[in-house]
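Hi, here's the filled form for the chain we discussed.

Project: internal
Contact: R.S.
Residues: 435
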Amino acid sequence: MKNKIIMFWVIVLIVIASIVTIFVKPTKLGLDLVGGSRLVIEAETTKAVPQITQDVMNRLQFAIENRVNKLGVAETVVQQVGEKRLLIEIPNVTDLKEAKAFLGETAQLEFKKEGKGPNGEQIWVETGLTGQDLAKSTLSTDSTGQWVVSLEFNGAGSKKFADLTRDLVGQQMAIFFDGELQSAPVIREPIYGGKAQISGGDSGFEYSEAERMVNLLNAGALPVPAKIVEENTVGPTLGADSIAKSKTAGIIGLSIVMLFMIAYYRLPGLIADIALMIYSVILFALFKAIPVTLTLAGIAGFILSIGMAVDANILIFERTKEELRAGRNLFTAINSGFDRAFTSIFDSNMTTIITCVILYLLGTSIVKGFALTLALGVIVSMFSAITITKNFMHLIFGTGELKYPQLFGLRKSEIGKGFEASETKRENARFGILD
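And the returned structure, exactly as it came back:
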């Protein structure tokens, strides 16, 4: 009994922590619930990349995902549709002017040196040092208070930069961004340590210009240019209506289930309802803590997992009633009911989780949301049914005999009937009598 009391307080602490998480953490809602924008971009070939391969698309998707993250917009979806297109869904953003410009820029950073063209004219020659050699870039100010972009190279880039500045002492080194000359400082001495600055020339950078460059450099260059071929917006009014209807459906469905459990299973049904409410609180807190982006499909997965949580309790209670009918005492019946039902619960839940994993790996963003919420719900439902319900039943019913069978929806005449039937079957089997 001491262990049961300890477990009870553990459950109480989990519930308190879950409630705090629900109030502190914001709910992440998908595009279909809060509104936002949907873009489709198409990769374009260049001289350097004459064919759009899957590897090019993978690199383009990675770069776009990084860029969208740099926009500061959470819960954005970027996924490939077709051979050369990416679908981008951005919640809470309806003005796409800046976002479209940001997504379309190539962010090519190049370091060049002076050279001579075919006719002897001065030109800038590539050195092999590019944005690919960057570890990160940051926004800062120089000694005059002008905004500058500070660069920090990775290991290979640091060596390239040191070799380049050593070879160019007394000469200019030009820094180009997206084909435009940003600055061309004279190298006074070799620069070691892998750090440099882009000053923006005599006029310097505006803050917004320097910030945009930092974000683009940190997000990475696009492997190929990409043009926007489709765009549309989803109004928040539609999302708000969907949320309201989902709440109504959830409340009605949950209320009917809880009333059924009480009507059919009496006191154990009430315990299951309490466990179900605790389950809902824990699961919703988990969604916020991860965080999980809730879409309409995700909410459907959440509601479906509630039904599976109830299903587990039904299996347990039916097994427990069988044990009581067989004449077992209350403590033994409860333990046997849970033990005998566990295999069925585990098998069915594992089948669902495996299906969810497959859907998550192979499905679209909407299907992934459904799969993730359902899988998390199934996992938490096992904890709810096996741990919370069992603990509460032991604390409430204790270890004694069942004095009031009506609390389990049984009549006194049913108690022991299962035991008598089992004995009759065993006797018949001894004499070869078939039912």
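Let me know if anything looks off before we file it.
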